[in-house]
Amino acid sequence: QVQLEESGGGLVQAGGSLRLSCAASGRTFPNYAMGWFRRAPGKEREFVAAITWSGTRTYYTDSVKGRFTISRDNAKDIQYLQMNSLNPEDTAVYYCAADGELGETELGDPYYYPTFWGQGTQVTVSS
Question: What is the pLDDT of residues 19-34, one digit of tens each?
Answer without folding.
Answer: 999 999 887 666 899 9
